[in-house]
User: Fold this.
Amino acid sequence: MTEIDAKIDALVPAWLHLPDIAEMLDVEVTRVRQLVKEGQLIAVRRGENRTLQVPAAFLDGDKVVKGLVGTLTLLRDDGYKDEEMLEWLFTPDPSLPGTPAQALTENRGTEVKRRAQALAV
Assistant:
């Protein structure tokens, strides 16, 4: 879990606290913490109380956005840290168009994963 800098914080349009995510997914908060620990979600400390928060774009109703976990795995395998993954996911990509996070919510995960794979050196 990472502290987030102002530049990346500004890229993410909305954030959710872990208890809110637990309610959305209909699971205990400990399960949400486990998802973060397993790398299926990215949580960062932010706000006045430095609480753990996850980008709202990572959830689609009562589930994690399709394709997110695979994309995070690809980026992590490429050596990206949590903060760098957030920056990449929420920075507009004219070739998509939109941001990779937006493309994932629009069920365009294949395109996003292709771009994530291309980042590997």
About this structure: The chain has a mean pLDDT of 93. The helical segments are 6-11, 18-25, 29-37, 68-77, 82-90, 100-105, 109-118. The CA atoms of residues 72 and 88 lie 11 Å apart.
